[in-house]
Amino acid sequence: MPRIPDESSKVVLLDDKNRGVVSGCVTVSGTTVQALTGRNGRGDFLASPRDRLVFDVTGSVGAASAGDRLADLSVALTMQGLDLPTPIHLPDLPDASSSLVASGVQGTPTVLTSTTGDSIVTVGSSVNVTHAGSPDSVTLRIGELSPQHLPGDLLLGGSATVLYGHGVFVHPATATFSPGLDIDLVDDLTLGGNMANLYRLDPDTGEVRKVDRTAVRRIYRAVEKAARKEGLEKENISAVEAFSSPAHTLGLLNIEPISVVIAMRPQTF
């Protein structure tokens, strides 16, 4: 049998509930260096990769619990010590948050809602959907990551404090939407009437970058949800508005593939 390499660098894969991902695979992009994860989500590259690298994570071959359908993603991280500086969290992409969409210009809108109800992604009736290889249709799925589990090196705001909301994962990252998608997020940043920035994890470079053109508009989905919970009718929405943060729609106007999109609010103290 070949001798086990002396070098060692470890990686940890977790789902959004901090459960270890079994049988996940992490590869240093452009190389044959990879790690397979065990029951606790830990894997060893049996090598010592260093510097700024892109890690291709294949969660779809693993699971943290029975019935999982975990995402695949690529993320850039800097290896300076023995192990990756942070665990990599993967969103679940359940069948309940999926839909088969025909390629080409859509005749009717398709709405995907996350299992929490906190994220709604809408493919509009005039949106042109394409996918690598030009298949006749593509199954779209969405998942979420908590703010503390967002992948990659999040951008800082200089002298301002930066607050990040939860991330939304749109699968597959090789699908494109022209002119774009509507992404409706519950206002977990308590934005009120303020603007938010939209950030994207680039599926090719693994870097987090700002989406140039975003729009935020106030809608009443979260308010209506609170009204129903309190047994109020729509005409009484103003009565619950004081204690229910309104949701916001972030219109993604670019046509590039999407992986994780992140809402951010700079806050100065």
Give an overview in words.
The strands form five sheets. Strands 8-13-14-21-17-18 form a six-stranded antiparallel sheet, with no helix packed on it. Strands 10-11-16-20-19 form a five-stranded antiparallel sheet. The chain folds into two domains: 10-90, Immunoglobulin-like; 95-267, Chondroitinase Ac, Chain A, domain 3. The N and C termini lie far apart (61 Å). Helices cover 5% and strands 40% of the residues. The protein is built from two helices and 21 strands. With 269 residues, it is mainly β.
A few lines on this structure:
The chain has about 270 residues and is mainly beta. The chain has two helices and 21 strands. The chain has two domains: about 10-90, Sandwich (Immunoglobulin-like), CATH 2.60.40; about 95-265, Chondroitinase Ac, Chain A, domain 3 (Sandwich).
User: Uncertain regions: pLDDT < 50 for 5+ in a row?
Assistant: 213-256
N-to-C order of helices and strands? EEEEEEEEEEEEEEEEEEEHHEE
What radius of gyration results from the CA coordinates? 20 Å
* Count of helical stretches: 2
Structural class: mainly beta
CATH architecture of the largest domain: Sandwich
What name does the CATH topology of the largest domain carry? Chondroitinase Ac, Chain A, domain 3
